[in-house]
Amino acid sequence: MDSIQIIKNYTVDDFYEVKNTIRDQLGDINYFSDDVKSFFEKLIQNNSSYVRKKKPYHQINEEWRKKKTQNIKNVNQDQNEKMYQELKGLLNRISPNNYQSISDEINKSIENYQDPEDRDQYYGMFLNDLVKKARMEANYCVYYVKILLSLNDKEIVNDFIIMLKEQYNSVIKTLKPINNKLEHNDDNDENDNENDNNETEQETYDEFCLSRKHKNFQKGLSQLIAELFNSHKISINELITYLTNFVQNIIGNIKNLEDDTIFDNGQKISNKSIEDNILYLSPLIEKSIEQLMKINLQNYQTDKIHTLFKNIETLSENKLIPNKNRYLLADLIDLYTQQKKIKQTQHMNSRFRNNNQNSNHQNSNNHHHHKKPRNTDNNNNVKQEYRKKN
User: Fold this and answer.
1) CA-based nearest residue to 156, from 184, 133, 128
2) Which residues of 222-249 are buried (b: 16+ CB within 10 A; e: fewer)?
3) pLDDT confidence of residue 383
4) What is the DSSP letter of 260?
5) What DSSP assignment string belongs to 86-140?
6) Interhelix angle for 264-294 vs 323-369, to 10°?
7) Which pLDDT score, from 0 to 100, does residue 169 have?
8) How far, in Å, are 40, 230, 240, 299, 340 from residue 294 at the CA level?
9) Using the 8-state DSSP alphabet, how is residue 56 labeled?
10) CA separation for the pair 179, 93 (Å, rounded)
11) Which residues fall within 8 angstroms of residue 72, CB to CB, at 6 or more apart?
């Protein structure tokens, strides 16, 4: 018969009882076995051998603490950069009430540049910043142009305006209608469609914001050009050329949309180009039309402008153009008609005043010519009496 093993279960109280029994004995090293004693001795020896050694004190070389003399070139560069940041700050403070005083401060700051090369470099950077501000804040373009034209270095300003006109012409060229035959490729239709789908899926809110920002840039650049025209820095012929090219770009893109053989991506490009051309065209006309209609135009210039707005009126009725863009074109026609009536009224008033002046002048001359004639009979009688007496 198997023996039964009895297993005893120990409780926490049992352990505490053993602990209390041997507590006094644990403090005596002799209580432990020789093996345990040997282990303790080795452990103590190893711990005592590990002592952190204090590093010997050496005289510290504090030459590195001394501030090194800066290179003169670096000092000047820092100073130039500081003045440039001040110039940018002045641009941020421009308002309708203080642009003249801000202009004076800008000229003083620019004159503080000692080196001519540095001055020209930061002059150019400042002008680029001015254009960026104008493109972002289109409503302040008139004041940015006033600041630009008030700068003392007229040679740099004139060169910069020429560069702006070249840039604007480049923009117009990029918005020309595409060549459908050159762009079309049947082998790539499937790839193009797949890429278009991918691009549509990748459109984000950030891209939408960038698109809106780009439209503000379009408006700002055109208003800047218009204000330069109002300030007589762009000629009437240059303005007519800009307007005509934008309208011709729109007409060319409309023809592409009317072409049944145009590929899908071509339609997308043409629609985008139409919108961009209108977004440049609209503010250019809005800000320049009043000054344009005040000018005594030559016959060929008047004919070009008349043709230009006839084409805009036709485009405003074209259903291939989205409604929001057609409404912009229709607003331009209304604006042109309004300014045309004002000019006609002024012309009629001017003619009326001239006619009155001529009439008054003529009446005055007639009055001088119809003076009462002298009484010659009385004069003769006086003479005869005088002769008799004598």
Assistant:
1) 128
2) bbbbbbbbbeebbebebbbebbbbbbbb
3) 52
4) T
5) HHHHHHHT--TTTHHHHHHHHHHHHHT--SHHHHHHHHHHHHHHHHHHHHH-GGG
6) 20
7) 94
8) 110, 11, 15, 15, 10
9) P
10) 47
11) none
Name residue 93's amino acid: R
Domain extents in the chain: 72-138, 153-182+212-355
pLDDT of residue 361: 59
Query: What number of CA atoms fall less than 13 Å from residue 37's CA on the CB side?
Result: 8
| Residue spans of the chain under pLDDT 70 | 1-8, 10, 12, 15-16, 18-33, 36-37, 39-77, 180-215, 352, 354-390
Q: How far is CA 323 from CA 61, 125, 255, in A?
A: 78, 40, 18
The span from the CA of 84 to the CA of 99, in Å, is 18
Q: Answer yes or no: are the C-beta atoms of 112 and 134 closer than 8 Å.
A: no
| C-alpha to C-alpha distance for 223 and 136, rounded to whole angstroms | 11
What is the DSSP track for 281-330?
A: HHHHHHHHHHHHHHS---HHHHHHHHHHHHHHHHHHT-TTS-HHHHHHHH
DSSP 18: H
Residue 123: predicted pLDDT: 87
**pLDDT for 183:** 43
Residue 142: the pLDDT is: 93
Secondary structure element (H or E) that encloses residue 81, with its range? helix 72-92
What are the pLDDT digits (tens) for 226-242?
999 999 999 999 999 99
Residue found by looking up tokens 């800000």 in the block: 287
The span from the CA of 214 to the CA of 384, in Å, is 102
Residue 190's SS3 state is helix
Per-residue pLDDT at 181:
44
**Tokens (6 digits) for 256:** 């592409």
